């Protein structure tokens, strides 16, 4: 079945900064939208634009044949999907469930199995690209689950992102997102320590970037975050507290696989320290503050 | 004075993989070239192309008004510049001395002062871009020293590189190169740990790169080195042993500045372990082997 705005009702659970933008694109594309989120005020813009409010997760699950979730932590994911009033217990057979939260690969597999037992198609589909990617529908979407389910919902995912890749079976999307976060963890230490070195050694950090941004030290973070560090602007693109959550998942999964990612563990401990000093709600580049 | 092939003789000391390519560009641009290097066979191509051999550092220094060095370690730099038979003692007043070795900022300042006392203009001008950058004359050149000396030798540097930036006074070129290496140190842990995670979790690492290379995890290393890791090709672009040298300098300088770069220190310890397991002559991306 091809999912079109004519035969599809999308349920969207979790309309925070990311979710609200993503759901907005679906609404703009003509899909009927039923929404629920913990704090109703965060859905107001969507409701004004034509989305319908549902009072519970179960009500969304019953009203829609494609259910998308973008919530906070693995505990939220577990409750929203596997709780007694959750999606798996309430969705109609044949429905597609897409969790776009960054969450545990093992939980994604568990949800996939529970969904399958009820004739539901579950995909894990975390994203990267942040609030800007969500707003501009340029997210990278990393998908785990069945190939047929992936093909069925792909036109919907394409309303929210640009680089949409099926990475493997259930959990593979989450694992891929972990690879992304592991690479970033090392990179952030490198960028923040390099900027701290530049300042302490009396160089002009802006001029240093001219020499190093285009070469082997070049990275998205050096291009996009180092200028913010230099400007003293530590507002979040991506929150420290969310990055800590992601690194925690990656470390837990690594241990289960017998992998010891020393750089990741160090980065996590540094970010924990930053959070304990009040930095939870700053952007990840605020790691610089530990060195300054 | 504008330095042209008509009024300039360039002395080049150290014609290893990098130096030979760099000196070749100067020769091709028409500059008379006098060369000396520890192992004469490494200069043979240059000699065949028209460079003249000198039997000692002192002889090069006496014969040239621009002297460029590209040697191995800070000890070599110190000996070549400040030894009794070195450049500073033997160059004619007014000569330009350009050390392009990655070396200690403090040593660069020391050479600058000793040179100044003899009426010589010393610049530190380390590069990034590796053997390919040297071959294609696309090196990034980070310069420390006087503005007038920089302007004088710039046309010569332009024969070897593309992104040539005066970063400040003596030592500033070396400090900038350290910033470059510090950023790379964190990034390499991130890239290698992400690739190890991808493999251990059963993902297809090539497909993972499709999802993560273009976003916030993106970096020169992820684009250029991760594919080599996947292919099991650990041949050096940049040698582990040279990276260890650079990180050692950066850590020493950091301590003197009261900076504690925990990520850099961890990276150095991991690379030391890799070297102790026989990895010195591999490329920096061989760090992956510690996790595999």
What would you note in describing this structure?
Two copies of one chain form a homodimer. Chain A starts with 9 loop residues before the first strand and ends in a 13-residue tail after the last helix. In chain A, 52% of the residues lie in helices and 13% in strands. In chain A, the strands form two sheets. A six-stranded parallel β-sheet of chain A has the order 3-2-1-4-5-6, sandwiched between helices. The mean pLDDT of chain A is 97. Chain A is elongated and about 65 Å long. Chain A is built from 14 helices and nine strands. In chain A, helix 9 packs across helix 13 and helix 13 runs antiparallel to helix 14. With 292 residues, chain A is of the alpha/beta class. Chain A folds into two domains: 159 residues, Rossmann fold (3-Layer(aba) Sandwich), CATH 3.40.50; 116 residues, N-(1-d-carboxylethyl)-l-norvaline Dehydrogenase, domain 2 (Orthogonal Bundle), CATH 1.10.1040.10. The longest helix of chain A has 29 residues. The interface between A and B is large, with 70 and 70 residues.
What is the average per-residue confidence, as pLDDT of chain A, rounded to a whole number?
A: 97
Highest CATH level, the class of the largest domain in chain A = Alpha Beta
Q: In CATH terms, what is the architecture of the largest domain in chain A?
A: 3-Layer(aba) Sandwich
Overall shape of chain A: it is elongated
Number of domains of chain A: 2
Q: Going across the major beta sheet of chain A, what is the strand order? A: 3-2-1-4-5-6
The number of distinct helices of chain A, counting runs of at least 4 residues, comes to 14
